[in-house]
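REQUEST ID: PR-0412
SUBMITTED BY: lab tech R.K.
PRIORITY: routine
TASK: structure prediction, single protein chain
INPUT:
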Amino acid sequence: MVKTLVVVGAGPGLGMGVARAFGLQGFQVGLIARTKGKLDTLVGELTELGITAAAFPADIRDRDALTTALASARHMLGPIDVLEYSPSPTGPITHAAQTTAGSASAQFELHVLGAVTAVGQVLPEMLDRGDGTLLLTTGVSSTVPAPFLANVGMAMAGLRNWAHTLHAELKPQGIYAGTVTIASGVIPGGGEADPDAIGARYYSMYQQRNRVEEVIGDLDAFRSLVAQTGGHGTPAMPISTAR
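STATUS: complete
OUTPUT:
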């Protein structure tokens, strides 16, 4: 039976790397993001590779729209075997002392509540069949506190924590949950930071199901950067990428 991957927060970088990695292994691919035109372009690129793919536009912060998009993907492509969640940070990114309830909740809506909504839509069916994979993506600030990424880090740390708890709770029920921390830019031709190299890491996690977390990039280099700037400077490495 053909399996299905759905990428929530799909973009031309990381999201397409994951889509190609699974699609070239025989998966059907559903792509969810806000802009239909961009999604249609990505679907066309996958189709040219012989991958069955479809677009399901939705604003991830709109929980009803996200639920509807996932239901449409299930209806068109069949049961969702792998959910990958990786929206790029959008909206104001605030320093620690400048973080407000509004700027914190905006990132929490995107990274945490969006993930909770997506998982809540696909998990019941995974539990019914005793199999499924949830891959939740965060950035380096989920692990290394950085004052210049304060509101993003708050949300991503929450998502990373939840992924670890899902892993522990769902493993006995046949569901694999893992998290990927992206501690670099996503750069075509950039070695381990190349989208296809990253996609291969996700596929390896899906196959092996033996680790809760994968780190792509150098956490220590980012720690050094934060220390050098005292947390006040602009990071020298990209903090968000086209996902």
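NOTES: DSSP finds seven helices and seven strands in the chain.
REVIEWED BY: pending
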